[in-house]
């Protein structure tokens, strides 16, 4: 057969080195299989790995995985390292020859073939960064950690030496040492050993999956992996198992011989010959032995009732003979000590399992009964004398050496040997008898009867009783037929109950517990083997205290109260408790016996009930509830008859059964004579006359009575009586403290199992009532006969109080056990009667209160925490954790009151009457206690390190939950939320850790946790301990993260925690290398740390600085794998988020590492390549992934795009890197090009639509950035042209943000608050404390809501249509809205950038036009209520304004302007209250857009004038009506409203608003042909009384001035000025006496002052001058133009009112030095002054002309025209001087002066002044008159 390819197991060397494929090491596979979260087992890499024939071949023949060298592997090695297989990766980064040399070295020194060695070499290369991180601390790290721990110089050496920091080398020295060849080779050898250990662990786990169809540990989906990996037994499982047994026994044999020979026999390499390596080598071999034994045990177990092959039994016992059942192995150090015990236990169990005592005994007895049974039917070891000889010899040797491990085996063999002897003896006797009988018959008949043909009767034939095959063994062996040997063997085993003690001890070390060495499955099967031995021994040993306590020890592991859970259950056939319940023999031998002696012997029965009631409920049948049923209805009772009681008569005396019948009743419980007067006698527990019973001892008065009763009720009554201590007489005796503890524990376990049963049946809202009902049944049953109106809960609470009051509780362990049991009971009752538990804790002395210290503190306060006290403290913490959970889960239920659930039965609310004050007070005490315990874990002394771990594992989540529950939901930190009652507790915790007074003691447990995780050796055993370490470290990391996030949320300074965490950041980073499990939590912590540090205004601490360049490099190298090979989505996202936070939060050096792949030091060395991106940098990885964006999972795509956009935004130089290779852009464009419209996607999947929109937003941002930089580099053309074809998605969906489902949110909020009284949806809003992701859990915290609202059937609803579904829909909808908002902003950037690059192209114009209209149309729809929508509306308006401005600049066609104008008017009309505070800014933007659009008509008309005037006029006719509407609704009405608001002094109205309306009116009146509509305009203005409004505003302007500046005067007069441009309106103004109104105003009186000039200092003087020049003079000019002589006298009068202004206007233009009287000062010209003389010149000239005809009515204007003309001529002739003396006023004139021109004038300002001066000259010159 062709050899199976190993390409999956060992991909090509080139692919491994280039990083294209991750070489799956056995350690990684083992990590996946042992993952208790159940995620890694399902990863595609692992599934592929197991679905491979080569890998399966290795697992069934373990010796081949690391086989010794041979010719075939040498050839394969040459092929694998040939150039063709290596060139795929760049050879700069590594030297293939070095790898080959290393492989050859390892092959020689580890006696392993070259291919396996090469695989190890590559694994070492892959894991080098991890190994570097796990190396010793540098002096820099050590100093930081000492500071963090608050230790002074040299103090911290003890705890730092664990981490190898005692030497405290410099980081460079450590790195140099790490890179040395010898160090590398030691690492290689260590990697080789690690791989061997984890290979055999994988083989062990894979065997469990294959044989039992499940993982040996508990994990979600642990029973589905067999199908996933296709690991199933073949069609002939027996053949397969028979092949595997010797294979794994050979592994045991070779490892043991290796240990015997020693390391020196293995290798002579100097580098490896040291104690450390040798210890590691021994540990590896022992580990291989343990796992191989585990495989053997499983194989033996799966033979069931069949005998395993004799050859295997022979091989095993030969081994055991050589190694004496491993009894002589002595541990060298703690790591090997951990392996020795499981070896011994497994050896013992395998020996018993191979002997199959129960099956063997049954086989022998069957054979005795039916001798015809053929011997050869079975391959039974019993029929092979050689095998029996071997077994006997090895067991005799073990007995001779007094082997403890072999004790159970010796015990087993003694029964088998006994049975063999009995069988032999019986047959010998039978044969002798038959021979005698036959001889007699022969003698009598003297002839031999011929037997008829056919089947002869075998029963009596002598032939059939011929010797059995094992007789040879009995006859050959020295003295096995001698019963004395059997007795000696049995005596060795059973002396002082030794064998039972040994089995008990073995069971304790197995687990499943934190200190248990084996997995739950193997532990259960092992204990089943010992249980079989117990059953077999029962006929010989009987019911004894030793065997019963051994049974308890075998059954109890893993089923303690706190171990019970709904998820961790073995299938019934693999669970030892379930098999006992279903095993009639075991139940008869032990349970029935215990029942018959109860309550005379109290503890055995109660303990057995407590253990058996926790049996697995995986597949319930009639045996599942057997224990509970029995406790509810117990048939008998055993006790001592009172001495004086004689009222009974014996019955059935002839049968001698000691039976009797009562003549009178026997009171079991009665009041003592002194109390009987005070209390009414209880009739219960009187055994009535006529009851039968029997004496069960020949002497004494112990009787077993037939008395059906409820044990639960009796136990409740006895608890009550033992509490009172006096007043009662009880024939059953008072309960001792051990018994009290056991009873309360039993009640707690029963309640807990009922709760778990309900939870498993689908503990949703519907079954919460069932739960309460079941538990109430139990509680009421236990309370049935308790007197005084009390119930069992009261009695247990009083018991707890009694034991806490008693000083003995401080000293006696049994009393502490009672308290522990009470705590468990409170926990069990918490589910059913939470309010009672809370109120009890509020008044009890267990916890601290304001006035006293709690008893918990006193009892556990000593430095040494021995087991009972530890158990009490741990139980209390578990109760506290559950209490905090109930605060959260009952948050709504507590407020709800009690509503009838249905017409049939009102459902009571268990929280009725619970005050928040009680919860607040107790939770504060819990927080204080938890903080104290947390602190003390670093100073207390524990009996084992695992105790400290499990304590932290319990206490840290309490602190975390209190803080999270308080701040992770709700509107804002100070508002009232669902868990406000936890706020004092949360504040206490936050103060403890954030306030500077906290000190470093608070943080020492954090430090010690990290250090313990880093110093732990990686064990393949002790799964529970490994899991405990993982969960404890994870909880510490999570809690630290929570502290940082909450500090940020509450805006509390977190410098103390930050400094501490920065100093210990080296440990957080190193944890990522310890285990994959720590990576996510550690990165979340570092992310939160970096984010918080980045908030400060000063430069944040550098993470790279604290880690050091070497550690940073290795750390980032590990992370750069982005979760490979398991690629768990959560881990991938966390990693990218961490990278992004580094870029965003000013972590300059680490950002550089991420973007270029080089540390600062490396960058300095290679200065030429600075800021060059290396191919393995994280940035390069991100870009390569973007090339195939379509193929990436959408959530991963989001985080990668976030990373890339952050790189562009925060580190702009990356753009130049991006310009070099733009291939990633093709991936982005392809993605956007193929996106379907969101309104289609949303119908099927709203979350997908949201994710796509968000991805498109990131892509638009990247495009915009690229365009921006390309434009500056002059390369934008091709990119922009390419992009413009891929914008369909943006043009469709970029602007509208229309997906907000208003009715969904409104109805949901309304129905929700109606349903859940006193609770609004806002209570479930997520805060920034937890990260949020687009999806069904985005805005409202769905998981928390589910926890809180599950109690109500309406939450799930019928067919899943309840509030839960509504919340999912609401979250998905808000995700989509949020994504579309981001899309809008990104599209805005991209579009504006495209517009800047290509303003003139038709495509760009078309896009801008389309988007502008989309923006305006979208704004006409009423948005959602949230403020975010108002911002969007504003943003859309801003975008529309910019786009319209750009479009107008590039000259639009009139039809396009019309289109924009129509849409704009529609949008303006949709604003209901334009001048309200909320909408005025938005309205202002729309008005600006309107102004810009109207101005477009002027440019359009000037363009069109050339082409076709007729077309233009045709299109303008349609516009006129629109313009009139604008003048009516926008200008006139708006002006009127504004004036009234200005009079009201409304704060949100600005002078600019009036200016804007005036400008719009000006633009309207400038539209061609508008003069034809003067009458309509006049009517419009009249209808709104605009003229009056303007004059009234002018008259009040001096009072309404802004800081003394009468700006409204100028604005109102400018408004009138614009009106006066139309003759008809000017006429109306004159008729309305506008000039008289202006003259009479207060403001005009200011004009009479002398200081009114353009250079005045006072703002009012400047403003008045502006009113005069810009307003009054042009207004009079317009009036004069329209009305001529009619208005001339009035205008002359007005002008003559201001003689000083007329005079000053001339004087300002005086030539320098012309006047001798004036003092010398620099003379300046201004544009405003020029405008003044320009207007005056025109006015005076026209008036002069009119006066010629009517000198009587029109007086002359006193103005020195001649002098002015002379001066103007001077200035025009002295242009250089004019340039020098030209003074700009205001920013606009400054801008004009800055705009240069070619020709006579240098700039625009000068040109404007010169033009006006020339006009003045022309107007005033003599020729003009002519």
From TrEMBL:
Alphabetical GO biological process terms: mRNA transport; protein import into nucleus; RNA export from nucleus
Cellular localisation: Nucleus, Nuclear pore complex
Molecular functions per Gene Ontology: structural constituent of nuclear pore
Keywords for the protein's UniProt record, in alphabetical order: mRNA transport, Nuclear pore complex, Nucleus, Protein transport, Translocation, Transport
GO cellular component: nuclear pore inner ring
Boundaries of every Nucleoporin Nup188 N-terminal domain copy: 281-436
A Pfam short name: Nup188_N
Entry superkingdom: Eukaryota
Protein name: Nucleoporin NUP188
């Amino acid at each position: 057969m062709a050899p199976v390819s190993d390409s999956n197991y060992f991909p090509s060397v080139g692919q491994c080195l280039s990083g294209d494929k991750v070489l799956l090491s056995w350690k990684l596979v083992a990590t996946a299989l042992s993952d208790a979260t159940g995620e890694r087992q399902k990863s595609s890499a692992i599934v592929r790995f197991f679905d491979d024939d080569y890998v399966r071949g290795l697992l069934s023949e373990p010796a081949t995985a690391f086989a010794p060298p041979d010719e075939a592997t040498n050839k394969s090695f040459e092929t694998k390292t040939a150039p063709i297989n290596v060139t795929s990766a760049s050879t700069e980064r590594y030297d293939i020859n070095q790898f080959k040399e290393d492989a050859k070295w390892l092959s020689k020194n580890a006696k392993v073939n070259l291919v396996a060695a090469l695989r190890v070499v590559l694994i070492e290369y892959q894991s080098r960064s991890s190994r570097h991180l796990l190396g010793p601390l540098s002096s820099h790290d050590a100093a930081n950690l000492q500071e963090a721990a608050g230790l002074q110089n040299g103090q911290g050496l003890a705890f730092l030496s664990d981490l190898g920091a005692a030497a405290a080398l410099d980081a460079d020295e450590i790195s140099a040492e790490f890179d040395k060849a010898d160090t590398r080779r030691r690492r290689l050898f260590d990697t080789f050993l690690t791989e061997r250990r984890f290979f055999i662990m994988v083989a062990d786990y894979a065997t469990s999956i294959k044989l039992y169809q499940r993982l040996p540990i508990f994990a979600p989906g642990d029973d589905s992996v067999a199908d996933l990996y296709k690991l199933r037994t073949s069609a002939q499982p027996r053949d397969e198992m028979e092949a595997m047994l010797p294979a794994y026994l050979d592994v045991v044999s070779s490892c043991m011989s290796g240990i015997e020979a020693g390391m020196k026999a293995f290798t002579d390499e100097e580098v490896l010959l040291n104690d450390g390596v040798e210890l590691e080598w021994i540990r590896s071999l022992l580990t291989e032995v343990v796992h191989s034994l585990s495989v053997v045990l499983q194989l033996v177990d799966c033979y069931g009732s069949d005998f395993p092959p004799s050859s295997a039994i022979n091989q095993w016992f030969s081994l055991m003979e050589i190694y004496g059942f491993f009894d002589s192995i002595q541990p060298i150090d703690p790591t090997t000590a951990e392996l020795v015990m499981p070896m011994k236990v497994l050896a013992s169990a395998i020996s018993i399992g191979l002997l199959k005592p129960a099956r063997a005994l049954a086989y022998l007895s069957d054979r005795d009964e039916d001798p015809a049974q053929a011997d050869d039917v079975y391959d039974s070891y019993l029929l092979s004398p050689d095998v029996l000889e071997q077994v006997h010899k090895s067991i005799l040797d073990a007995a001779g050496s007094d082997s403890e491990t072999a004790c159970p085996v010796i015990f087993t063999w003694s029964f088998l040997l006994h049975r063999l002897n009995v069988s032999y003896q019986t047959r010998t006797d039978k044969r002798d008898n038959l021979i005698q009988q036959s001889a007699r018959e022969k003698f009598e008949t003297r002839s031999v009867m011929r037997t008829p043909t056919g089947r002869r009767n075998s029963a009596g034939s002598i032939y059939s009783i011929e010797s059995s095959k094992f007789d040879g063994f009995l006859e050959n062996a020295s003295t096995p037929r001698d019963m004395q040997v059997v007795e000696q063997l049995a005596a060795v085993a059973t002396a002082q109950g030794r064998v039972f003690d040994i089995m008990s001890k073995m069971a304790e070390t197995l687990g499943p517990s934190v200190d248990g060495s084996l997995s739950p499955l193997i532990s259960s099967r092992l204990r089943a083997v010992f249980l079989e031995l117990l059953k077999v021994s029962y006929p010989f040993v009987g019911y004894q205290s030793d065997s019963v306590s051994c049974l308890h020890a075998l059954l109890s592991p893993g089923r303690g109260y706190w171990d019970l859970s709904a998820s961790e259950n073995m299938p019934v056939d693999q669970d030892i408790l379930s098999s006992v319940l279903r095993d009639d023999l075991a139940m008869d031998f032990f349970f029935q016996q215990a029942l018959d002696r109860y309550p005379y012997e109290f503890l055995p029965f109660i303990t057995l009930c407590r253990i058996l009631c926790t049996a697995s409920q995986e597949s319930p049948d009639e045996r599942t509830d057997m224990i509970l049923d029995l406790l509810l209805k117990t048939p008998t009772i055993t006790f001592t008859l009172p001495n004086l009681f004689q009222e009974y008569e014996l019955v059935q005396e002839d049968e001698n059964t000691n039976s009797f019948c009562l003549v009178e009743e026997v009171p079991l419980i009665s009041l003592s004579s002194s109390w009987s007067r005070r209390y009414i006698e209880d009739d219960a527990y009187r055994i009535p006359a006529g009851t039968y019973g029997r004496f069960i001892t020949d002497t004494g008065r112990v009787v077993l009575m037939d008395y059906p009763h409820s044990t639960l009720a009796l136990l409740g009554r006895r608890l009550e009586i033992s509490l009172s201590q006096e007043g009662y007489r009880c024939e059953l005796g008072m309960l001792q403290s051990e018994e009290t503890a056991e009873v309360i524990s039993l009640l707690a376990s029963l309640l807990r199992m009922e709760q778990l049963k309900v939870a498993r049946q689908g503990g949703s809202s519907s079954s919460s009532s069932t739960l309460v009902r079941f538990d109430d049944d139990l509680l009421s049953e236990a309370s049935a006969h308790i007197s005084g109106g009390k119930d069992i809960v009261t009695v247990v609470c009083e018991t707890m109080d009694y034991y806490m009051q008693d000083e003995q509780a401080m000293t006696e362990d049994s009393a502490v056990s009672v308290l522990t049991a009470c705590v468990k009971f409170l926990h069990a009752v918490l589910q059913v009667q939470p309010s009672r538990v809370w109120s009890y804790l509020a008044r009890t002395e267990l916890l601290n209160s304001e006035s006293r210290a709690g008893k918990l503190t006193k009892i556990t306060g000593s430095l040494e925490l021995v087991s009972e006290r530890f158990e009490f403290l741990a139980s209390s913490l578990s109760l506290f954790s559950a209490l905090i959970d109930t605060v959260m889960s009952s948050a709504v239920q507590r407020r709800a009151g009690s509503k009838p659930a249905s017409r049939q039965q009102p459902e009571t609310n268990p929280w009725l009457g619970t005050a928040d004050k009680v919860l607040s007070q107790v939770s504060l005490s819990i927080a204080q206690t938890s903080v104290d315990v947390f602190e003390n874990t670093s100073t207390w002394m524990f009996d084992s390190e695992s105790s400290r771990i499990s304590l932290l594992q319990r206490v840290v989540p309490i602190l975390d939950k209190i803080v999270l529950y308080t701040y992770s939901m709700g509107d804002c930190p100070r508002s009232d939320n669902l868990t406000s009652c936890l706020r004092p507790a949360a504040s206490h915790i936050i103060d403890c850790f954030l306030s500077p007074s906290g000190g470093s003691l608070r943080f020492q447990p954090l430090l010690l946790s990290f250090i313990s995780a880093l110093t732990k050796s990686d064990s393949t055993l002790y799964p529970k301990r490994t899991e405990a370490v993982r969960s404890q470290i994870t909880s510490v990391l999570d809690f630290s993260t929570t502290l940082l996030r909450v500090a940020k949320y509450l805006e509390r300074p977190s410098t103390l925690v930050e400094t501490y965490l920065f100093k210990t950041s080296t440990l957080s980073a190193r944890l990522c290398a310890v285990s994959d499990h720590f990576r996510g939590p550690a990165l979340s912590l570092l992310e939160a740390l970096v984010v918080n540090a980045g908030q400060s205004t000063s430069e944040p601490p550098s993470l790279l600085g604290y880690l050091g360049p070497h550690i940073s490099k290795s750390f980032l190298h590990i992370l750069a794998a982005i979760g490979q090979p398991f690629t768990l989505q959560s881990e991938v996202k966390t990693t990218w988020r961490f990278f992004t936070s580094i870029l965003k939060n000013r972590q300059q050096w680490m950002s550089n590492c991420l973007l270029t792949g080089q540390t600062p030091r490396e960058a300095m060395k290679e200065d030429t390549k600075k800021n060059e991106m290396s191919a393995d940098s994280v940035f390069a990885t991100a870009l390569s992934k973007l090339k195939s964006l379509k193929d990436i999972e959408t959530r991963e795509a989001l985080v990668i795009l976030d990373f890339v956009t952050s790189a562009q935004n925060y580190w702009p130089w990356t753009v130049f890197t991006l310009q070099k290779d733009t291939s990633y852009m093709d991936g982005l464009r392809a993605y956007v090009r193929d996106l379907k419209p969101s309104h289609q996607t949303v119908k099927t999947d709203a979350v997908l639509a949201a994710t796509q929109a968000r991805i498109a937003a990131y892509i638009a941002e990247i495009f915009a950035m690229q365009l921006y930089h390309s434009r500056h580099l002059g390369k934008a053309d091709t990119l922009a042209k390419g992009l413009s074809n891929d914008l369909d998605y943006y043009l469709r969906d970029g602007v509208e943000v229309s997906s907000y489902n208003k009715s969904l949110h409104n109805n949901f909020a309304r129905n929700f608050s109606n349903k859940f009284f006193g609770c609004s949806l806002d209570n479930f809003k997520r805060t920034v404390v937890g990260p949020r992701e687009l999806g069904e859990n985005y805005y409202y915290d769905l998981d928390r809501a589910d926890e809180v609202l599950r109690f109500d059937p309406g939450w799930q609803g019928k067919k899943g249509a309840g509030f839960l579904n509504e919340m999912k829909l609401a979250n998905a909808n808000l995700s989509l809205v949020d994504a579309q908002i981001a899309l809008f902003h990104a599209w805005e950037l991209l579009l504006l950038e495209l517009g800047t690059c290509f303003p003139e192209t038709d495509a760009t114009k078309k896009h801008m036009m389309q988007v502008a209209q989309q923006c305006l149309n979208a704004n006409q729809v009423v948005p959602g209520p949230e403020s975010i929508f108002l911002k969007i509306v504003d943003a859309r308006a801003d975008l529309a304004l910019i786009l319209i401005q750009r479009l107008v600049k590039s000259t639009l066609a009139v039809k396009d302007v019309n289109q924009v104008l129509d849409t704009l008017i529609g949008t303006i009309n949709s604003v209901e209250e334009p001048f309200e505070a909320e909408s005025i800014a938005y309205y202002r933007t729309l008005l600006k857009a309107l102004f810009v659009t109207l101005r477009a008509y002027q440019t359009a008309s000037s363009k069109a004038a050339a082409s076709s005037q007729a077309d233009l006029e045709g299109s303008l006719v349609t516009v006129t009506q629109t313009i009139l509407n604008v003048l009516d609704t926008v200008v006139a009405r708006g002006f009127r409203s504004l004036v009234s608001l200005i009079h009201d002094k409304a704060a949100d109205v600005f002078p600019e608003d009036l200016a804007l309306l005036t400008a719009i009116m000006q633009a309207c009146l400038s539209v061609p042909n508008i003069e034809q509509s003067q009458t309509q305009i006049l009517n419009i203005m009249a209808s709104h009384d605009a003229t009056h409004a303007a004059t009234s505003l002018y008259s009040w302007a001096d009072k309404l001035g802004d800081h003394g500046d009468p700006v409204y005067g100028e604005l109102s007069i400018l408004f009138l000025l614009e009106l006066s441009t139309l003759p008809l309106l000017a006429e109306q103004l004159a008729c309305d006496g506008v000039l008289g109104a202006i003259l009479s105003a207060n403001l005009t009186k200011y004009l009479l002052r002398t200081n009114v000039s353009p250079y005045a200092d006072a703002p009012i003087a400047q403003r008045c001058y502006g009113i005069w020049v810009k307003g009054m003079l042009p207004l009079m000019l317009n009036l004069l133009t329209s009305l001529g002589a009619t208005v001339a006298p009035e205008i002359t009068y007005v002008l003559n009112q201001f003689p000083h202004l007329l005079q000053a206007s001339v004087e300002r233009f005086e030539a320098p030095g012309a006047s001798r009287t004036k003092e010398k000062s620099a003379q300046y010209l201004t544009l405003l002054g020029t405008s003044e003389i320009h207007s005056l010149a025109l006015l005076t000239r026209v008036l002069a002309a009119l006066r010629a005809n009517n000198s009587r009515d029109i007086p002359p204007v006193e103005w020195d025209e001649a002098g002015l003309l002379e001066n103007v001529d001077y200035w025009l002739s002295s242009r250089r001087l004019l340039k020098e003396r030209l003074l700009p006023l205001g920013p606009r004139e400054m801008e004009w002066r800055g705009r240069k021109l070619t020709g006579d004038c240098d700039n625009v300002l000068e040109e404007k002044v010169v033009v006006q001066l020339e006009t003045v000259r022309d107007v005033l010159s003599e020729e003009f008159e002519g």
